[in-house]
Design a protein that fits this description.
alpha+beta, Bacterial Protein-export protein SecB, 35% strand
Length: 141
């Protein structure tokens, strides 16, 4: 049986923004606080190389610094991916987006947990992020 490699490889990943601010006026209560960040991902090909893609994922929580929340965070992570030959353009975009979402959100989730674990209100473990397709028809052009 022939074993095929996954058609996408992570070339490089790094953070361009990693901000976690503990709210000094936060008063913990008995209620469960839902930490639901706003997540956004953008994927594009690198000009001049149709096999290389760049993905940028941003995850923001409590951007207005509401003091009823323990933290505000703004994280941005970038990944470079290389795609093997042989996939159709639409398939490449889909597979790179799914892979980038999993890799970059995982890195953001891990970083938020590590950083908040060393803050006064305790560690925040982000839940899963669900990838939704864009409703804007221009995004698919």
């Amino acid at each position: 049986m022939e074993h095929k490699n996954f058609p996408i490889a992570l070339e490089q990943m790094f953070f361009t923004r990693s901000i976690v601010i503990a709210s000094p006026d936060f008063k913990p209560g008995n209620e469960q606080i839902k930490i639901l960040p706003e997540n956004k991902i953008e994927v594009s090909t690198i000009e001049g190389d149709r096999r290389r893609y760049i993905a940028t994922m941003q995850s923001i929580f409590n951007k207005n610094s509401d003091t009823t929340m323990p933290y505000m965070f703004d994280m941005e992570c970038i990944g470079f991916f290389i795609v093997e030959e042989g996939l159709e353009k639409e398939e490449i975009t889909r597979v790179v987006t799914i892979t980038a979402h999993n890799v970059l959100y995982g890195a953001i989730r891990e970083s938020v947990a590590w950083l908040t674990g060393r803050q006064p209100h305790g560690q925040v473990m982000l839940g899963l992020s669900v990838l939704h397709s864009s409703l804007d028809p221009q995004d698919s052009q």
